[in-house]
Specification:
mainly beta, 10% helix, Jelly Rolls, 221 residues
């Protein structure tokens, strides 16, 4: 029986392995990329339109990657936040503008410990700013009350901070008020109840919101 030439038998295998190592992409064909469906590309929905009580005849709500558009309701349009809401120290920032109507274009209901309060921007005829309610008094009856003339279709930067035993608010970097939480009681009008624990409403007014952010102060220290 003739002697096998083991070198010749191994040569093709060696060449094949060398080729694969030198060009690993050729070894395994790359799987085709999965198509991006509209559902996969869409941003996570963090807001829900409120449809009960005073919001049953709400305006159209349109949410895009850049803005939240709240159509004019009769009398109110509101959305409730579905993400996690801090109960300790936090700050909420956004930009808002009135696009129609003449009452408040940003009514933010937010937690104060285990209670709730609302920041009203542009209410009671279009210019009142303040908290509802402090010691049972509305945004035009307590120490947070301010009056500002708001231009239609103009973006305003709004900040609300609940921290260090105080509630404070700014519009376009100007501080509007600061009030100690331990010295007062806080609650909301019954109309704002469906917005809890965090939500935004307008009153006989159309508005747009953008760059909405919730900052947990303790986590970001």
């Amino acid at each position: 029986m003739p002697r096998r030439n083991h070198f010749l038998l191994l040569l093709p295998l060696t060449l094949t392995l060398s080729t694969l190592v030198a060009n690993p992409v050729a070894a395994v064909a790359a799987p085709p990329e999965a198509p991006v469906t509209p559902e996969a590309a869409a941003p996570r929905v963090l807001w829900k339109t409120v449809t009960r009580d005073m919001f049953d005849d709400h305006g159209k709500v349109t949410i895009t990657k850049k803005t939240i558009q709240l159509g004019e309701g009769t009398p109110a349009t509101g959305i409730r936040y579905l993400g996690p809401v801090p109960r300790g120290e936090y700050e909420i920032r956004c930009q808002a503008k009135r696009t129609g109507g003449g009452d408040f274009f940003y009514g933010l209901t937010f937690p104060v410990g285990q209670d709730y309060c609302s920041l009203i921007v542009g209410g009671w005829g279009g210019s009142a700013v303040g908290l509802s309610n402090v010691d049972g008094l509305s945004a035009i009856e307590n120490s947070t009350t301010q009056y500002i003339e708001f231009k239609k279709n103009h973006w305003y930067t709004i900040r609300l901070r609940v921290a260090a035993g105080k509630i404070a608010a700014w519009i376009d970097e100007k501080q509007i008020f600061e009030i100690a939480t331990e010295e007062h009681t806080f609650d909301i009008w019954w109309e704002q109840t469906p917005l809890r624990p965090l939500g935004i409403a307008t009153w006989n007014t159309a508005a747009e919101i953008r760059d909405f952010k919730i900052i947990d102060i303790k986590k970001n220290d």
